[in-house]
């Protein structure tokens, strides 16, 4: 066996440690990706009868399958009916998002100061929907409700892309109680999207679906528990603010349509 000088021996040890560190990182990344893939399947099996898992990419088929307007001669839900159905869904999903945000804050971010919480509540991630519209901007959308529906459809779809990752990580690494909360909100947002899809396609328009790639791989593969909790808090806070603002917007649209119908 070759004899190394002290300097050569030190260099050998440094290189060996670095290689071991690199290999550990590669193994962790591979294991993490495998766990995520398996987790998608496990999510459907592990929740039992208490929680119905939401399929991946569900924002593309919110009505359970490709939507087509009823055949000629069959009744079609009016825009007023569809928008009226959106209001309570938005109200309830907004309230659930607020409750989930407070649950994250009190159970997951207990060691974070109020100053940091304030920073997180002002933060966002690339790919999340912008927020928020003022009342003047909402009023301006009343002259083009199709564009308003399409814009809101995209915002909710973006939220669902991020919630999908939150749900997968909750299933893999966290507690069932949080997963049930997230899944409940996902289900309601899909119901909201189904109504929006009908309102859009009944006008003969199409929908430009968002891609899951709007959420970066870096965000999807957070290695640290602390980083995941901060990431998820930002997502849930943006979801609450978006739904709260959209609830106000859709209420204004609903009042506008009812006035038109009664005139």
Overview of this structure, please?
Helices cover 69% and strands 0% of the residues. The chain is built from eight helices and no strands. The chain has 263 residues and is mainly alpha-helical. It has two domains: 1-48; 70-262, Growth Hormone, Chain: A (Up-down Bundle), CATH 1.20.1250.
| Helicity range | 55-70%
Q: Specify the CATH class of the largest domain.
A: Mainly Alpha
How widely separated are the two ends? 97 Å
Compute the number of helices. Answer: 8
CATH architecture of the largest domain: Up-down Bundle
Provide the gyration radius in Å: 23 Å
Beta strand %: under 5%
Keywords:
263 residues, mainly alpha, Growth Hormone, Chain: A, 2 domains, globular
Outline:
By secondary structure, the chain is mostly helical. The protein has 8 helices and no strands.
List strands and helices in order, with pairings.
Blueprint: H1 6-46, H2 79-107, H3 114-122, H4 135-140, H5 145-173, H6 176-201, H7 217-220, H8 225-262
Helix pairs in contact: 1-5, 2-6, 2-8, 5-6, 5-8
């Amino acid at each position: 066996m070759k004899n190394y000088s002290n300097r050569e021996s030190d260099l050998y040890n440094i290189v060996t440690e670095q290689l071991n560190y690199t290999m550990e990182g590669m193994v962790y990344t591979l294991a993490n990706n495998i766990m995520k893939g398996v987790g998608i399947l496990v999510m459907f099996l592990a929740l039992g009868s208490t929680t119905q898992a939401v399929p991946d990419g569900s924002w593309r088929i919110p009505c359970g399958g490709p939507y087509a307007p009823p055949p000629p001669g069959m009744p079609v839900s009016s825009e007023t009916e569809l928008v009226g159905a959106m209001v309570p869904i938005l109200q309830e999903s907004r309230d659930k998002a607020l409750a989930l945000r407070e649950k994250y804050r009190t159970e997951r971010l207990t060691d974070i100061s109020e100053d940091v919480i304030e920073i997180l509540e002002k933060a966002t991630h690339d790919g999340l929907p912008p927020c928020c519209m003022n009342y003047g901007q909402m009023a301006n959308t009343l002259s083009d409700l199709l564009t308003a529906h399409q814009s809101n459809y995209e915002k909710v779809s973006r939220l669902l892309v991020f919630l999908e990752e939150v749900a997968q990580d909750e299933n893999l690494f966290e507690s069932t109680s949080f997963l049930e909360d997230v899944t409940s909100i996902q289900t309601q947002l899909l119901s909201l999207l189904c109504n929006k899809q009908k309102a859009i396609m009944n006008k003969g328009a199409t929908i430009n679906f968002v891609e899951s790639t709007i959420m970066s791989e870096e965000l999807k593969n957070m290695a640290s528990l602390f980083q995941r909790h901060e990431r998820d808090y930002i997502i849930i806070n943006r979801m609450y603010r978006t739904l709260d603002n959209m609830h106000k917007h859709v209420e204004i649209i609903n009042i506008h349509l009812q006035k038109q119908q009664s005139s």
